[in-house]
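Quick start: what a row looks like.
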Amino acid sequence: MSTQTEIIIKPSGRASYFNWKEIIDYRDLLFLMIRRDFVSRYKQTILGPAWAIIQPVMTALVFTVIFGKVAKISTDGAPPFLFYLTGMLFWQMFSTSILAGGNSLQANASLFSKVYFPRIIPSLATQITQLIPFTIQFIIFGVFYTWYQLSSDAATVHWLRLLWLPFLIILVMLTSLSISLLYSALTAKYRDLQHALGFIVQLGLYATPVIYPVSSINAEWRWLVWANPLAAPISCTKWIFLDAGAPPGWPLVLSAVFTLLIFLIAVVFFQRVQRTFIDTV
């Protein structure tokens, strides 16, 4: 005699409550969405994942010509191409995550109406998926960096500084996840923001020390740069590999605290919006 199990789904008593255990329970769905996001990104493309290499390398080359040769912007003594390529490591991961995760509610609206699962999973899958192209880009960066080390007598590798890299990766991923959750929750109510996302990301590139060092900013205005939670991780990455940028200090602590604060706000706001999103879409 077979027994049937009845599952009753009840809303939590608090709109701000988030059941983190559900992410573990739905981990199979998370892995499926990670695979879906990666495959769909390069599906029906000729070069496939090679775009993860071409885009940052070509961007770094363009920056080298325009900002290094023409505008002659300082790179704190680092080779311009490596300076821009280092900055593009985290910026590429961040911008792609924002563009893909910012519309996670709208992109999965039809799926939300058919089956229940934690609405944060699509955004979370988007962030984790970016680790794949980031790894590819980091390998290519390692090739150029090794060539520079071998061809330059003055170049040195600071191995202990590499211990900061995992922390910086987590910090950037948490920042992009937080902003993606906020943006997707806002676009659920204000659809105009969908059209502004690409423009905002482009402006963010120039508000982040990707193409210029923080040392080139007047000391009285540097606090504006450090207010950007991405500024410290990107600048610290340049310090790790190129002795440019800024070492870990109060800007990195400020970035971590600010990111955690944004994350908590984003989760609460996202949780409130996603409860009623399917009724208003």
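That is the whole record. Residues 60 and 84 are 5 Å apart (CA to CA). The chain has a mean pLDDT of 82.
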